[in-house]
Write a structure and sequence with these properties.
The protein has about 280 residues and is an alpha/beta fold. It is about 35% helix and about 10% strand. The protein has 11 helices and 6 strands. A 6-stranded parallel β-sheet has the order 2-1-3-4-5-6, with helices on both faces. α3 links the parallel β1 and β2. It is globular, with a radius of gyration of 18 Å.
C-alpha cells in the first residue's frame, strides 16, 4: 500500500471524529427519545393537514439535527417525524454516510410509514445539508413526487460541493476517490461532478407537482460555492438568508441547527397561505 493511502484511512476516521464538533452533544442526545415529535398517535389538523418529515445531514442523526427545529414545528401544531438513514456498519450515532441512492430508499419506506400512521395523503419534507438534497432522488426516481407536497432544503448540496476547492485535489492522488467511495460512499456522492449528482440533476432539478424551497447562507463553508445550492425550475423559491436578515452570520451547521430566521422561512414554505415576512425580528417569533 502506498504511504499516502495509509494516511487517508486515519484521515477518514478523523473526519468522523471531527463531526462531534459539528453536531453538538451527539453522544448525549442520540440515544435520548425525541420530545414532542415522532408521535405516531398525532393526527394532522385542518390547518396543518400534512405531516412533516425531517431529514438530517451528513454525520448527523434523527435527534441531534432537530433539537431546535422539531419543537419549533410541534409548537405550531404540526405532526413531525424524523428518521435515521445512511448508517454504516460499526459506526454508531453518525449517519448519512452510506450510498445516497440507498438512503433515498430508506426515506421512501419511512414516508410510507408516516402516511399510513397519520392517514394523510401527502407529507412535507424538510432537510438539512445532505438531507436537503437526498430526497430529490426519492422524488425523481422512487415515486416520491406523488406523496410529497412541499420540499424545503436548508443548506443543501444540490449540485455538490468543492469544499472551497479541496475536492479538486483528489485527481492528483491516484485511487483517493475510490478509497473515499469505499469508506464513506455518501461523501464521494456529494463531490461536485460525481456520478450520483450527474444522474440526479440530468433532465432538470425538479419534478412536477412538488413545491421546492431552498434556504442558503453566504457563509456556508461546507457546500461551496453557496449558490450551487439553488435549484432551477418552475416551482422553486431560492432564498439567501442574508437577504432576509443582513446581519445573520449563520454558517452551514448553524442555519440548520439553530437559526430561527431560517426556521421562520421554512415554516412559511410549509404554510404559504399564512406566511408572514421573514426578517431579523423573526428570531423572536
Amino acid at each position: 500500500m502506498l504511504p499516502w493511502k495509509r494516511l487517508l484511512r486515519p484521515l477518514v476516521a478523523l473526519l468522523l471524529a471531527a463531526a462531534v464538533a459539528v453536531v453538538p452533544a451527539a453522544t448525549a442526545h442520540a440515544a435520548a427519545p425525541s420530545s414532542g415529535w415522532n408521535d405516531y398517535s398525532c393526527r394532522p389538523s385542518a390547518s396543518h393537514p400534512r405531516p412533516v418529515v425531517l431529514v438530517h445531514g451528513t454525520f448527523a442523526n434523527s435527534v441531534d439535527n432537530w433539537l431546535s427545529f422539531a419543537p419549533y414545528l410541534v409548537a405550531r401544531g404540526y405532526c413531525v417525524y424524523s428518521l435515521d438513514y445512511g448508517q454504516l456498519p460499526g459506526v454508531p450515532i453518525f449517519n448519512a454516510l452510506g450510498p445516497i441512492d440507498k438512503s433515498a430508499g430508506q426515506l421512501q419506506v419511512f414516508v410510507d410509514k408516516v402516511l399510513a400512521a397519520t392517514g394523510a395523503a401527502k407529507a412535507d419534507l424538510v432537510g438539512h445539508s445532505q438531507g436537503g438534497m437526498m430526497p430529490r432522488y426519492y422524488l425523481k426516481f422512487l415515486g416520491g413526487a406523488a406523496k410529497v407536497n412541499t420540499f424545503v432544503g436548508i443548506a443543501p448540496d444540490n449540485h455538490g460541493t468543492t469544499l472551497d476547492g479541496l475536492t479538486k485535489l483528489l485527481p492528483y492522488f491516484p485511487g483517493a476517490e475510490d478509497l473515499l467511495s469505499a469508506a464513506t460512499p455518501a461523501l464521494a456522492d456529494q463531490i461536485a461532478g460525481s456520478a450520483f449528482l450527474t444522474k440526479l440533476n440530468a433532465g432538470g432539478d425538479t419534478v412536477p407537482g412538488v413545491h421546492y424551497t431552498v434556504i442558503a447562507t453566504r457563509y456556508d463553508e461546507v457546500v461551496t460555492p453557496y449558490r450551487s445550492q439553488f435549484l432551477t425550475g418552475s416551482d422553486v423559491h431560492n432564498v439567501l438568508l442574508q437577504d432576509l436578515c443582513p446581519v445573520d452570520i449563520s454558517e452551514h451547521a448553524a442555519i440548520g441547527l439553530l437559526d430561527r430566521i431560517a426556521f421562520h422561512e421554512a415554516a412559511n414554505a410549509l404554510d404559504p397561505a399564512h406566511a408572514s415576512t421573514t426578517n431579523c425580528a423573526s428570531v423572536f417569533s
